[in-house]
Every structure is written in C-alpha cells, then in structure tokens.
Design brief:
Strand order of the largest sheet: 1-22-18-17-21-2
Order of helices and strands: HEEEEEEEHHEEEEEEEEEHEEEEEE
Mean pLDDT: 85
Number of helices: 4
Number of strands: 22
Low-confidence stretches: none
Largest sheet: 6 strands, mixed
Radius of gyration: 53 Å
Number of domains: 3
Shape: rod-shaped
Distance between the termini: 76 Å
Oligomer: single chain
C-alpha cells in the first residue's frame, strides 16, 4: 500500500534563500543608518606635517623689516635759486661744520642787492641833508634872534627915553607913540620867531626820525638780502658725512630744492615699515629685537609716523644699550616687534593650512593615528611661530598643519604609512 509523502513548507533551500535575503536587507538598512558616508582621501603621512596642541607661553609679535639710518640727518635745501657755479666736495666726503660744499650764482639777486644799496645810500644822503638843513636853520634862527634882541634893546631904550620926556612934555605925542609901537612890534616879532623855531624844530625832528627809521629798515632788508647772497655758498651746518649731493655744474636750482644731506655719525637708529592693520596697536616705547652674528639686540620705538603710504606706516627705533659693531647705513634687519605681554595659552604651530581655512577649521588626527577628521576651531592671536587656540582643540591633540590645498572638500583623511 502506497503512503503519500507530505510536502515540507520550509525546505532547507528555501530557508537559505529567505535567510540570505533578510541578511542583505538588514545589511543595507545598517549601512543606511550607521555607515560612514563622508568623503575620504588617502594621504601619505610622510608628505604632511603633524603638530601637537600644547600649553605654553605666548608672545604676540610681528616680523618687520628695518633699515639702519643715522641717528640724525640734516637736509640741505636751497635758500635762493640759482645756477650751480662751483662744486667743492663730492658725495660721500666727510665734512666739518662750516666747510663749503657748493656755490650758486644768481644775477637777479646781485642786481637787487646793488639796487637796494643805491636806495640806502640815497636815503642816507637825504637824512644827512635834512640834518644839515636843520642845523643851518637853527643857526640862522639864532642869528635872527640875536639881531632882533639887539633891535629890541635899542627900541626899548628909545621908548624909555621918550616916556620920560613925555612926562615932561618935552616930546610930541606922535613921536612917543611911534617909539612905543616900534618897541611892542619888536617884542611880538621875537615871540613869533621863537614859536616858529619851536615848530620847525618839532617838524624837522619828526622828519629825521622817519628818515632814520627808513634807513634802519632798508639796512635790515639789505642785510637779509646779503644773507641770502651768502647762502648761495652752501656750507655744512654740522660735522658728518655728505651722503647726498644733488647738484651738477651748470644746473639750475630753485628756492627750496634739495641740494644734499649730511648724516651725523654719532649713532644709528632703525626705521621700519609696519602694515597699517597694526597702526592702532603701535605706540612709543614698544620693544622689538633682532638677531645678528649670534647675538640678540633690543630696540625701542621712539617715534611713530602717522602718515600711511602704500599700506604701511613708519616708526623710528633706537637701540637699547650698545648697538652692533660694524653696522652700515642702509643695512636691513629682520625685527620681531612685540605687540603684547607674555601670557600662558593653548598653542598650535603655524602652517600652510591657514591659507585654506582662515583658522576656522582643521584636520584633527584620531588617537589611533589611522585617520584625521575635519573639526571647527577658533584661533586668536598669532606670531610667526604659533597660533593662540581659543576653541575646538585640547592639549595633546595632533593637528595636520601643512597645506590643505590638494584636499578639496573631503571631510576625512586616511593616513597611510
């Protein structure tokens, strides 16, 4: 008797198919939820720079280039225009105070001096003639006064005689009155002569004072012009080195033109150009330093020039203590200019990454050392060696600080040994 074989609902083959499909679905679901889908890039560790974040002393400073200059420079400008007639010294020569450097000629100025001298002589002659006329007039008035006094004396005597005779009726009234009137007339003439002499004296004295004042002004003006004439011969105002002479024989110069300069070699200073971004943070008294021949020298800002040219402004710095030996005018120095006091901070070494990220994010190396991931950070102050870390990093962490230019927009770097 045949027995019917019951068909199995879950044969092994079916179970295998169903199980495999379920596993595949679970795998896809897991990958969808948990898998790392970030963009990756393989990089060789030997081609990158990794720096460790650490605490340390931070000193904010900026590198500036300074130029050695004499402590004092005297500029030589033309007081009056003229043509270069003689050259006494060459550029670079050592000069002593009062040494002649060059000579200009100015015919207009020479003619002006001659004209003013003629005017002065004429005015002096006018003053002399006025004074002579005044003295002659005084003598004449004195003579007239003497004659009049003599006449008054005679008239008075005649009047007194007639007055006595009149009382005795020995002279006619007409003769008496004539002698009296003549005497009184002579007295009035004398008073008028004295008043005239006084007024004339006041007038001539005032006239002479004006002439003397005019002569004095003309002498002062002539003296100034002669000083200008003398300035056509350029002389060294101080001892030093004639480092510049901007004049050649026959060349015409205008008043105010720069003819040269003298450097006083008693000491040196450093002039440095600083980016205008730091103009609000630069003050007199700030310190800087530079290295030369294995030794560090310190400088202090003594003067800040507020003018900005080409995006930079200048400062003058002087040496603290002894200046380096054998330095020369025009020599350049690489100076570290301090912008603040030293302070404890979290530090990250500078690198090419900053040009790509602007200090807003970095690649932080995983503790395993197998990969590095992008992380947002905040960097603060900086100097040529270090950044001050404000947020996003912790002591001991490692950061890729070399350039990120070839990484594109990846979020993860796979580090390959």
């Amino acid at each position: 008797m045949d027995r019917q074989i019951e068909k199995k609902k879950w044969p092994p083959k079916k179970i295998a198919y169903v199980g495999g499909g379920a596993f595949l679905v679970l795998l896809l679901f897991y990958n969808f939820l948990f898998a790392d889908r970030s963009a990756k890039l393989n990089v060789k560790t030997e081609k990158i720079t990794i720096s460790k974040v650490q605490r340390g002393t931070f000193q904010e400073f900026i590198p500036v280039t300074g130029t050695i200059m004499p402590i004092k420079t005297i500029y030589l400008d033309a007081m009056e225009g003229g043509r270069v007639d003689k050259l006494y010294l060459e550029q670079g020569a050592m000069v002593k105070q009062g040494d002649q450097i060059l000579k200009l000629t100015n015919t207009n100025l020479q003619m002006d001096v001659m004209f003013r001298e003629a005017q002065l002589f004429e005015q002096i002659n006018n003053l002399r003639n006025t004074r002579l006329a005044f003295e002659q007039n005084k003598l004449k008035v004195r003579g007239d006064l003497i004659d009049l006094d003599y006449e008054i004396t005679k008239l008075k005597r005649a009047f007194e005689i007639n007055d006595g005779l009149m009382k005795q009726n020995l002279v006619s009234p007409q003769e008496y009155e004539q002698s009296r009137d003549a005497y009184q007339y002579a007295l009035k003439r004398r008073d008028l002569l004295i008043d005239t002499q006084r007024q004339d004296s006041i007038l001539r004295t005032s006239q002479m004072e004006q002439l003397e004042l005019s002569v004095s002004h003309m002498q002062d003006n002539l003296g100034i012009i002669k000083e200008n004439m003398a300035s056509l011969t350029l002389k060294a105002p101080v001892s030093g080195q004639l480092t510049s002479r901007n004049a050649e024989l026959g060349e015409s110069k205008r008043a105010g033109d720069r003819l040269g300069q003298i450097d006083v070699l008693d000491g040196f200073k450093v002039r440095a150009g600083i980016d205008e971004h730091y103009i609000a943070r630069i003050q007199i008294g700030q310190a800087g330093e530079f290295d030369l021949s294995g030794k560090t020298y310190k400088l202090t800002i003594k003067k800040v020039y507020p003018e900005v040219t080409g995006g930079k402004f200048d400062v003058d710095m002087e040496f603290e203590g002894e200046a380096p030996k054998d330095i020369r005018r025009g020599q350049t120095l690489q100076i570290r200019l301090e912008l603040g006091d030293q302070a404890e901070a979290l530090l990250l070494a500078r690198g090419g990454f900053y040009q790509k990220t602007g200090g807003q994010w970095v690649f932080v190396v995983d503790p395993s050392g197998d990969f590095a991931v992008k992380r947002s950070v905040k960097l603060g102050r900086q100097n040529p060696q270090m950044f001050e870390v404000m947020e996003g990093l912790y002591p001991g962490e490692e950061v890729i600080t070399s350039s990120y230019d070839s990484y594109g927009d990846v979020d993860k770097l796979i580090l390959q040994k």
